[in-house]
Backbone:
């Protein structure tokens, strides 16, 4: 019963919408099987019509066909007439053979599956939904058309979701394009209410949506109602989503940025932050240059001093075994990274320790030169150890490492 | 993203190496501005080479450093032995990037011209266009701030900005603690 619905609809229906719907389905069928036209109920005339590829001709011919099939169809645009329903019921009865035919055709379609069967299935489903109230003949036409719209949407979304491969997609596009053309033609030909036209334009819009949403390959984009659906705006939307996602990360990274909404404000904040960081770098490099005015590149000496105490304190006591000290630092570093609390003390300690570890080896050679300036060394060592102890007392749980530090400290104090 | 402390360590290591290379080669005394420049450049290059040339901004930083004459010498000194390969890669990729993005820009311009023409008759998007202009202006500023930003599209600009900010933070932290340590040492020394 459901699958025979197009014919039935043509009998029963009074609105353009239903005819459109039936037409859409007929075109689908007709695209798949040219034998459709040869089927019994329409005779030779329809077969001629349906073999013609031009959709316009199809629409016209189809309309004539509908006019032939359904008596008084031209009179019917007025939807409120109740007596029509009884008449239609009669037609239904008399057109039983049509229904069977329609059923056969649907079966053929799903079997041959030259059209994506998933598309056909929702169509019939939608038809079923529509045909039920028609059979009941109780509801007003406006409500029916509403339901039909829903059904339409259901169908379209299913088409969107379930089509994957390209050839299928193109077929659907072609079909829907044709149906669009025909529906629009009929809607302009028939002097029906605006409501129907709206629905037809709606369907055409959604058809175009169905074809366009699949354009960017395998990126799922959902165009909501009222959003533009051409490929440019879809791509633009994807781009904007990406940008806003990254902006969210930036918002987390930049302090004071999470209260600001709006892209311009956020960009402002980011710009300020980057600028301030860059200025800080400038300022700090200036400061570093200013702090060491006596020697040219005091900085290096500073680092030399920073490095050497670690060696020089160990050197006299342990003598040859810088390898002994280095393992201690090596041991220290992983543990520090395990602790992984990025407090300020840690931030200070870790690079310096790394520095000692990395640079102590190449510089040991020139150690003798630096022995004279041992007071500085001592100062620095004290400073470092001070920092060290701070860092350890606040956050360091690892014992072996602390022991080594204390050992070096003791050595230092000796 | 790596751990921040390891990032800082690497940055500091490279920075010190670069500074050592820089100072060991130049024996004459430098003015404060020269020193500052050397420090800044070495810090920047250390930051860029810590990123290993995997991001646009680091490559652009290296390429910019080796562009004008006097800083090129310095940059070569700082970068030392690995400078050649790094620089070559960065400049090559930058040129390649430029070409690609320039063509993209031309395309975009032609598109935007058409769009403007289309949208001019409709005045209903007026407020929208103001907001867009504001964003565009700020994006432009951001592009000038991030090294190599003028050749990026918006998505990669924001990605690079993310990365750049993380590295700038590390740089600032390290420099600050080095500066404070230096000050302390000097004070104790005096």
Residues:
């Amino acid at each position: 019963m459901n699958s025979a619905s197009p014919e039935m609809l043509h009998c029963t229906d009074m609105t353009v919408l239903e005819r459109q719907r039936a037409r859409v389905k007929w075109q689908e069928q007709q695209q798949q099987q040219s034998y459709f036209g040869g089927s019994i109920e329409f005779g030779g005339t329809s077969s001629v019509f349906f073999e013609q590829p031009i959709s316009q001709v199809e629409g016209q011919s189809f309309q004539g066909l509908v006019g032939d099939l359904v008596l008084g169809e031209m009179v019917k645009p007025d939807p409120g007439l109740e007596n029509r329903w009884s008449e239609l019921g009669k037609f239904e009865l008399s057109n039983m053979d049509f229904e069977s035919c329609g059923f056969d055709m649907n079966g053929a379609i799903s079997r041959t599956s030259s059209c994506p069967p998933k598309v056909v299935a929702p169509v019939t489903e939608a038809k079923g939904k529509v045909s039920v109230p028609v059979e009941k003949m109780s509801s007003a036409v406006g409500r029916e058309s509403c339901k039909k719209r829903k059904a339409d949407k259901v169908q379209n979304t299913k088409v969107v979701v379930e089509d994957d491969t390209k050839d299928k997609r193109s077929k659907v596009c072609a079909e829907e394009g044709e149906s669009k053309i025909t529906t629009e033609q009929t809607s302009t030909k028939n002097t029906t209410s605006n409501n129907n036209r709206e629905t037809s334009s709606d369907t055409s819009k959604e058809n175009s949506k169905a074809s366009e949403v699949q354009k960017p390959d395998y990126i799922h984009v959902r165009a909501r109602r009222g959003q533009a659906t051409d490929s440019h705006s879809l791509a633009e939307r994807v781009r904007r989503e990406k940008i806003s996602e990254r902006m969210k990360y930036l918002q987390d990274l930049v302090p004071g940025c999470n209260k600001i909404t709006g892209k311009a404000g956020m960009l402002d904040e980011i710009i300020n932050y980057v600028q301030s960081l860059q200025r800080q770098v400038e300022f700090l490099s200036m400061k570093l240059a200013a702090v060491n005015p006596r020697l040219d590149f005091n900085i290096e000496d500073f680092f030399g001093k920073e490095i050497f105490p670690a060696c020089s304190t160990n050197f006299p006591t342990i003598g040859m075994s810088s390898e002994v000290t280095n393992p201690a630092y090596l041991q220290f570093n992983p543990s520090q990274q395990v602790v992984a609390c990025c407090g300020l003390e840690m931030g200070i300690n870790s690079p310096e320790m790394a520095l000692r570890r990395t640079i102590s080896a190449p510089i040991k050679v020139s150690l003798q030169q630096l022995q004279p300036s041992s007071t500085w060394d001592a100062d620095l060592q004290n400073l470092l150890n001070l920092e060290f102890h701070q860092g350890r007392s606040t956050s360091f749980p690892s014992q072996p490492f602390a022991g080594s530090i204390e050992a070096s400290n003791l050595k230092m104090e000796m | 993203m790596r751990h921040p402390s390891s990032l800082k360590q690497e940055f500091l290591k490279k920075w010190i190496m670069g500074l050592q290379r820089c100072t060991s080669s130049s024996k004459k005394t430098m003015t404060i501005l020269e020193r500052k420049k050397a420090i800044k450049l070495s810090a920047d290059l250390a930051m860029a080479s810590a990123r290993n040339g995997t991001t646009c901004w680091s490559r652009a930083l290296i390429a910019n450093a080796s562009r004008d004459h006097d800083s090129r010498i310095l940059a070569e000194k700082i970068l030392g032995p690995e400078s050649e390969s790094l620089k070559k890669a960065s400049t090559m990729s930058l040129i390649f990037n430029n070409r690609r993005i320039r063509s993209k820009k031309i395309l975009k311009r032609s598109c935007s011209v058409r769009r403007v023409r289309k949208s001019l008759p409709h005045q209903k998007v007026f407020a929208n266009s103001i907001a867009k202009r504001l964003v565009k202006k700020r994006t432009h500023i951001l592009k000038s701030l991030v090294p190599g930003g003028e050749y990026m599209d918006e998505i990669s600009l924001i990605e690079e900005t993310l990365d750049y900010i993380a590295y700038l933070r590390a740089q600032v932290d390290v420099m600050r603690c080095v500066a404070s340590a230096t000050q302390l040492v000097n004070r104790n020394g005096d």
Q: What stands out?
A: The radius of gyration of chain B is 21 Å.
